[in-house]
Amino acid sequence: MKKIWERLRADYTPKSVEVLRKGYSLALFKRDCISGLTVSIVSLPLAMALAIASGLTPAQGLYTAIVAGFVIALMGGSRYQIGGPTGAFAIVVLEVLQAYGYNGLIASMILTGILLIAAGFMKLGSYIKYIPYPVIIGFTAGIGLILITSQIKDFLGLTRNDIPNAFLQRWYTYIVSIPQTNWAAAFIGFLSLALYLLIKKFTPKIPVYLAILVVTTLVTYFFNLPIETIGSKYGDLPKMLPAPEFPKMSLDLFRLVFPSALTVAFLAAVESLLSAKVVDSMSGDMHNPNAELVGEGLANIAAAAFFGLPATGAIARTATNYKANAYSPVSGMMQSVFLLGFMFCLSPLVKFIPLSSLALILIMIGWNMLNLDKMLGLVKSLPGDRYTLLVTVILTVVVNLSAAIAVGFIMAAVIFMHRMSKEIELANM
Q: Are 282 and 275 in contact (CB under 8 A)?
């Protein structure tokens, strides 16, 4: 019995408990506060932009970053993990909202949380590394393309509401709608792009997305540009978190959203464990994959209670946390505290942020998700990996994410078996 308990404790003890048990001081807390503040500055614009891309309000993105980010840091299995909304979920969330409404999204998040917790207790975290690499790169790139496509409307300030969802039809509509461009919005969009490129090249230590929002908001406000802003579309930002509450849901609704919950749980598991693995390679620490899955599951249920959207570990924000000299998961918790402070203090100013600058931020997130260097490497590699990648990308864009993942897995399995049979044939010659 003692051995079983020790094994359970080793598998599921949150990293926060593991690290703090070794000792903690005021100096280390100050260090975590500084890194938490740094990450919160990065997370603030991303949380709002990703919520908008998902069909929700900027406030709901902040709710998610605050609540889910705190729970992931407190209960997860990675020392430096920063959780919140990510680009990988935007398309799935939008589809669930369109099909089943917000109650359907809440139901899918609860199921996602249960699935992730179950996966953690079934010790499936260790098997994520066996997911075929071309499939991961393929569906990530496909999501990136869809994310970019979804933001052209706001980037150009188009006001028409009849833009189709289909990828090719949407691009055709954009092309024929160019004469209807709001050139003031387009100016802000291209100014945002110029700022992004200049900051990345000459002052990369400046938080680029926050700098874009500050500059473009000032330009929009002082020149009184006739463009859509957060305030004109979504109203004022609340100053506090809402009271936790679950809406009424039926078993039929849970049944309907279960396939979407499976997709979101898969994406959350893959992205969070990849993020933890990346920061482990930077820090030399070792994350606990099963505890991380449990923490991610609890975070999604908590985010659902606070009217948020799905959350997972975010690679860029987690890497920023480590580079900002974080010591422990307290840094991730403090990120949430600082975001709550920003929400309270800056809510009157947020309404002036132009949507075209947020669209540019999402376009750049989508561009980074393409992983062009990795895609090029796979295209130049073995034919099986190349075809798996291309089919996964195309199906993600043209059909849907679930079909792309299923077909990609089948192709990768068949190609693997083919390679193994060749190896056996060569060994028997």
A: no
